[in-house]
Amino acid sequence: MEIEKFSSRHLLKIRLKTLYIIFFFFFSLLTHAEENVVVVISMDGVRHDYPNLLSEGGFNLISEKGSVASSLVPVYQSSTFPTHVTMATGVTPDKHGILHNGFFDRNRGFYSYSPDASWIESEPIWSLLERQGIKTATYFWVGSESDWKGTKISYSKAPFNGRISEKDKTKQILDWLDLGPKERPRLIMTWWHGSDSIAHQSGSTNTKVINQLKKQDKELLNLITEIERRGYWENVTLIVVSDHGMSDVENYINIKEILKNNSIDSTLSIGPAIGHIFLDDLTDKELAISVLKKESNLIVWDGSQLPSNYNMFHPARTGDIVVETNAPNMLVTRKNSNPPKGMHGYNPIINKEMDGIFFAYGNRVSVNQIDKVSQLDIAPTILNLLDLETPSYMTGQSIELD
Ligand SMILES: [Zn+2]
Fold it and tell me: In the predicted model, is pLDDT for residue 166 greater than 60?
């Protein structure tokens, strides 16, 4: 009798255990199917106020059904390479090392628009995820065209080709989303042309700028509609950002000429807003600082004394002397018969026209008008949307979207 009792109880236990196993198997299948995918689009040079001038496309739809920040504050120098690398790494340019689209490194020499990710000194988010076994995809995000310290991106488009249209990029994004749950990347990051080049040529408020943007706004709507048609929005979050805004310029300060006129030899790394001067002879420092200080519209710093909130001091890449200016002035090294009318790169603390955009739509995003956010918040936001911890070295915060 005792044995019979025992065995029936035992049988019941086994049955319960089997039920549990079956339940957890289906539960894990279900949760796996619901793993969120984050798509990040960066549109070059889209100033925070430009989407207000568009009414029929993707921006308008997200304004009504998603989250929009009043602006996205870029890092300084607010140029395409430093800003994209900040959004991908969650750290400021002094930490990731990409001070401008081109810069000089005392040990390695000149860097200029290089696809070589070994110049990036903080881990990009795609590498962080891939190391955890999470598939990622990039379509021309700065720094993603080569492996970072040997970690491969599962799906990456390289080399960069500016002729590839946003239509082609949309098609590829949809193809990636169409992959089965095991193959599908959970993070897709892509660069779009935005309105940068036309605003450089024509100025920040020329009607051509908005006309150029209209086409991409339409493509953005197409992407949203196609994801809807496939029924993927339950598992997809879309984030649309830009790298910087745009100001009009009309005064060009030739740093090379000023130094040459005073017989000061140096290696120059001059951006539109910030110029790094690496002196051949450090005993020229006082003279160089005094002649540069005579120039109006120019602020002059000893490289090691830069304000800490610039986050721009890198031991090998910051000049002995650093000069800076604000719009409508721009630093140059040569005369240009057709100089740009629009420019960026300026200090976002004092030039609000440098602010870009932040739009979010889809899973875990509710209708929301949010205050301004920082480019340092982008990586933590992506990690949060993927249910992953933000590493402690990232100083930004996940943006509240729901
Ligand atoms: Zn630009």
Answer: yes
Cα–Cα distance between 311 and 298 in angstroms, integer? 19
CA distance linking residue 292 with residue 384, whole number of Å: 46
Is residue 24 one of the residues assigned to a domain?
no
Greatest Cα-to-Cα distance within the chain, rounded to the nearest angstrom: 109
pTM (2 decimals)? Answer: 0.91
pLDDT band at 105 (very low <50, low <70, confident <90, very high): very high
Tell how far the Cα of 80 is from the centroid of ligand 1, in angstroms. Answer: 6
Residue 3 lies in a domain: no
pLDDT of residue 15: 63
Residue pair 39/364 in contact (Cβ under 8 Å)? The answer is no
- Separation of CA 294 and ligand 1 centre (Å): 29
pLDDT digits (tens, 9 = 90+) for 6-30: 555 555 555 655 555 555 445 444 4
**Integer-rounded Cα radius of gyration of the chain:** 25
Structural domain boundaries, residue 279? 251-339
Task: Using the mean position of ligand 1's atoms as its centre, give its distance from the Cα of residue 197 in Å.
Answer: 6
Give me the residue label for tokens 């304004």: 63
Task: Enumerate residues with CB within 5 Å of ligand 1 (an ion).
Answer: 196
